[in-house]
Structure prediction request, 172 residues.
Amino acid sequence: MLPRLFQVRRVQPETYDTFTLELEPEDGSLLVFRPGQFNMLYLFGVGEVAISVSGEPERPSPLTHTLRAVGAVTRGLCSLKPGDVVGVRGPFGNSWPLGEAEGHDVVLVAGGIGLAPLRPALYHLLAHRGRYGRIVLLCGARSPKDLLFRRELEKWRGRFDLEVTATVDYAA
Prediction:
């Protein structure tokens, strides 16, 4: 599968080393995905890396990925600017079996960057709130500065139909 060309729309810093990329397809054709799937992001001249989709499945545009700058490719991707172009192959992988959870309580547990691949599942659960029982999100990080999606966590905490608990290993 050849990579499709996507233009960087926005690069959002989440923490000191983690960024969310919002991508738009150059050909205008949306890339539809299911919660839990990933794409291969190709940085021309550097390489390719597998990154989970972290956006809303019901709103596939922009295509959203959250990544930590830990290697040559991810550092390069995190340094992109709006208008830059990347290659995208996918989606790949199985989705979370959210249909099997209908009528039941759902607990999502994530640590650090692990919240990014669960975010589409949470978006789906909230978009179809009436199909599920209690929804509980427990997320952790090393320190407060390492918590992903802090503004969104606060927004989610304000919902009456979602329980959110964030914990850190070191408070300072």
In short: The helical segments are 72-78, 115-127, 150-157. Residues 115-127 form the longest helix (13 residues). The chain has a mean pLDDT of 95. The two ends are 46 Å apart (CA to CA).
